[in-house]
Structure formats: C-alpha cells, structure tokens
Design a protein that fits this description.
The protein is built from 10 helices and 9 strands. The chain has 273 residues and is an alpha+beta fold. The chain has 2 domains: 77 residues, Winged helix-like DNA-binding domain superfamily/Winged helix DNA-binding domain (Arc Repressor Mutant, subunit A, Orthogonal Bundle), CATH 1.10.10.10; 175 residues, 2-Layer Sandwich (Beta-Lactamase). The strands form 3 sheets. It has a 5-stranded antiparallel sheet with strand order 6-5-9-8-7. It has a two-stranded antiparallel ribbon with strand order 1-2. Strand 8 and strand 9 form a beta hairpin. The termini are far apart.
Length: 273
Amino acid sequence: MAAWQHGSMAGASENGQMRPADQPRLVQSVERALTMLEEIAASETPPSATEIAQRAGVNRATAWRLLVTLEHFHLIERDPHSGRYTVGYGATRIAAVSGAASLVRIARPVLEQLGTELKESTYLQVASGSRLVVLDEVRAVNPVQVDLGNVEVPLHCGSVGKLFLGFLPDGEREEYLAQPLTAFTERTLTDPDRLRTEIAQAKVDRFAIAYQEHLPDWAGATAVVCDRRERPLAYLNVTVPCYRYTEEDVSNFRTPLRHAAADLEQRLLYRRM
C-alpha cells in the first residue's frame, strides 16, 4: 500500500524522520517565505534582513533569496535608504481583493455616510511601505472628479502624505525631509522647516489639508484613523476641485472628517473586543 494514501500510513519528512499521517506536508521554501512575511507584518518598526532571518529561523543566504522573491511580487517593499522592509502593495491588494481586509468592509458605511454629508467623493487609504494606497472609494455624483487610484501624490504635497510623515519615527521623517523636495506648483512646500512645522501640527490635529500643492486645480483634506496605541491604521480623505472650494472651505472639512475617523476607530475597536 502506498504511503501517500489518504488517511492511512505516515510519510517520511524531508529530514528523514517519520511524519504523522495527519500532519500536512509543507513546501519548506513557501513556509519560510510566509513566515518571513508574517514577521515583517508583525514588526512595530521595519526590520532589516538580518532581523527577519533571525526571527524566522532562516540562514541569511536563504533569507536574502526569499526576500528578493517576495519583493519581486510586491508582497514586501525594501526602503532603498535604510534597507529595511515593510509589507508591500501586492499584499495589501491581495488582502483587499480577497475580502480578508475587513477594514474595507467596516469602513464602507463610514465612507458612504461621509460622502452623503459632504456631497463629495470619499476615499479610504492605507500605507504600504512608503506608498499610500487607495483601498476603497465612494464616488459622488459631481461631474468633475479625480481618480486617486491612478494618481501618486508625493508625501510632502498631499494631505494624506503629511499625516503619514507626522506619524513616522523621527529618524525616518528627517531622512525624507533631507531629500530634495520637488515643487509641483507655486504652493508646494519645499522648505523643510516649514514643512516640519506643518507636519507636526497635522499630527496634533489628526487632520491635514493640501490646497493646490500637487495639482493647481485640486485640494484634499484627510483625517487619520488610529488604533489604541495611536498607530495609524488608515486615512479618510476627501479630494475636491478648487473651483468649488476655497482653502477655508477645505479646512472646514475638519469636523466631519474627524468625526468619521472617530466613528471608524470605534467600529474597529468594537470588532476586536
């Protein structure tokens, strides 16, 4: 009788030892890669390749090959400056599409209510490494809209980006501010000191705006959604055309956006209790 017949005999493991019949036969390289991905996702700060290898119990040469593979498929992202790793855009997309990202489901009624109140399109965004990804959106009926899913806004000239920078560890934020900051319009902040001040205030307020800072015809307002440890989970954004709104109008989105963010925080907290 073959050792692989379902529900019968045990098989030999890869190290030559007998494996119980009810123990799943795992592909070692896949198991190691997924373990490393889990370690990266669970880390409070982006880990280095050496730290990932140690935590996953993998030698450094193997870890490097697996990290390169995971990065190739955008499941992780390596910061070119620090060499540290975060969960990548591909993993975020898989989670969203598969329905495993309960954040999308829980946030949907909040986005819809916010959109109804403001009569504008609303967006749910998350960070994936140093990128900001649109997970969900509720479109308004207005004829003029922006498709944020196809626009990558540099961190220093977007309302979501300013909040993202505000919650970064000091060293990572300063590393970003030390780079040349491109001016896209005459209103883009490129002075690191001015930008640092605005970012710090955005973190305190849990709210930020960007008015004609990336594109001259558009403005955005964003509130951050945090967990109990004050770590950002997501961002609620409204992006509007400037011909309909003054900068003061966009600033007035503060109250509805912050209320919506607080609502989502409570929904997420209730789900985890």
